[in-house]
Write a structure and sequence with these properties.
By secondary structure, the chain is mainly α. The protein has one domain. It contains 5 helices and no strands. Helix 3 runs antiparallel to helix 4. The longest helix has 53 residues. One of its GO terms (biological process) is vesicle fusion. It comes from Elaeis guineensis var. tenera (Oil palm). Involved in transport from the ER to the Golgi apparatus as well as in intra-Golgi transport. It belongs to a super-family of proteins called t-SNAREs or soluble NSF (N-ethylmaleimide-sensitive factor) attachment protein receptor.
Length: 219
């Protein structure tokens, strides 16, 4: 397949960013209100656009690595920052949505448990019926645990994407730092901050998963 020109790649990146921004606005409204079942389609669309934008950025990186000017490098860095911001916000919103859904499911389980207790006290239900309701509640809890595992895997995917993005930028940073020694200190501070952000995200994901597992085991 014939390689695209820089202008064509940049035009494609802007188009994907606009489409992502539109879908992210819809997703933000969905998360801030009450999910209506359309979140799966939105999430699939956003993930598809993120992958396409990542591919375009990689093609732009090929242009820069083959001897592009500093202006091209600066443009690519901006597009990568947009991709990183959109990716981080998407995973944050999706985690928030999953937490709301799990909270609602836990409330439903609690109400089912209360109703089962009242039925047993009033003699309206049999022991077998109460056991069946408890089994249904356990099945839902198992589904929630699967959701937590999927969420942890999604967070890991975001961290891998960030590492790939930082790796592509590191070569260009080295060239810039060689030409402009006076900015070495600033670049080192940026790298330390980005490394700290990655560590914090990993710790938060690990702690959340650990707490949910403790909650699950303590039931």
């Amino acid at each position: 397949m014939e390689a695209l020109s820089w202008d064509a790649l940049r035009k494609q990146a802007r188009k994907l960013e606009a489409q992502l921004d539109e879908q992210m606005n819809s997703y933000r409204r969905l998360v801030s209100t009450k999910p209506d079942g359309s979140e799966k389609d939105l999430e699939s669309g956003i993930e598809r656009f993120l992958k396409q934008l990542q591919l375009v950025n990689s093609q732009m990186q090929t242009w820069v690595s083959s001897g592009g000017s500093e202006i091209l490098s600066h443009t690519l860095t901006r597009h990568r920052e947009i991709l990183q911001d959109l990716t981080q916000e998407f995973y944050r919103l999706r985690s928030s949505l999953r937490a709301k859904q799990e909270h609602a499911s836990l409330l439903l389980d609690f109400r089912d448990f209360e109703r089962a207790g009242l039925d047993m006290e009033e003699g309206a239900g049999s022991v077998d019926q109460a056991l069946l309701k408890e089994q249904a509640a356990l099945s839902r809890s198992s589904g929630q645990m699967d959701g937590v595992i999927s969420q942890a895997q999604a967070t890991l995917g975001a961290l891998v994407l960030q590492r790939s993005t930082f790796g592509g930028i590191s070569g260009k940073i080295s060239n810039v730092s060689g030409r402009l020694p006076t900015v070495n200190h600033i670049l080192s501070a940026i790298r330390r901050k980005k490394s700290m952000d990655t560590i914090i995200l990993s710790l938060v994901a690990s702690v959340c998963t650990f707490l949910i597992l403790i909650y699950w085991l303590s039931k």
